[in-house]
Amino acid sequence: MPTPRAPLPLTEVEAIARNAHAGQRDKAGRPYAEHLAAVADGVRARGGSDDQIAAAWLHDAVEDDALSAEWLAAAALPQQVKDMVLAVTKRDGEGVAAYTRRILATPGALLIKESDLAHNADPTRLAVLDPATHTRLTAKYAQVRALLGLSAAESPAEQPDPANTTEG
């Protein structure tokens, strides 16, 4: 029987995530690693565990094809980290209701998604987008927050648009 490997330290998880997303930009044109750092910092500020912080660093890696699901399965990470990453990973053709149910059913995943949504919906990030994208994303983030049972967004601009109920 092989000896279990020690879990990767957070500094190494961060380095892997930054490397995996190197060269990638967010919708506002900023280096994608800034988003990963903001989500990890948000999880930490909300009292998240080291496992949740590790999952925050990796939360978009599989979804964005920066790292494969096979890499994640084989990585020296606690199973809880892997479960949280997969819980917040959107799947092709999956509706928002199924997506949010999976997050709610996975211990620890809600905090990662809450931090992700908080950064995604940051008014300073949304302000640089074209008006149509700003409106679409604001409604999308508000809908996901509502389905996850998170408190209403502080900004009136983040209130859900009833016309947009199926986007995930």
SSE-based structural type: mainly alpha
Tell me the series of helices and strands, N- to C-terminal.
Answer: HHHHHHHHH
Number of helical regions: 9
Radius of gyration, taken over Cα atoms and rounded to an integer in Å: 16 Å
Mean pLDDT: 89
**Shape call:** globular
Question: How would a crystallographer describe the biggest sheet?
Answer: none
Report strand %.
under 5%
Give a count of the beta strands, DSSP E runs of length 2 or more.
0
Structure description:
The protein is mostly helical and 168 residues long. Helix content is 55%, strand content 0%. The chain is built from nine helices and no strands. The longest helix has 18 residues.
Output the keywords.
disordered C terminus, mainly alpha, 168 residues, globular
In short, what is this structure?
This protein has 168 residues and is mostly helical. It is built from nine helices and no strands.
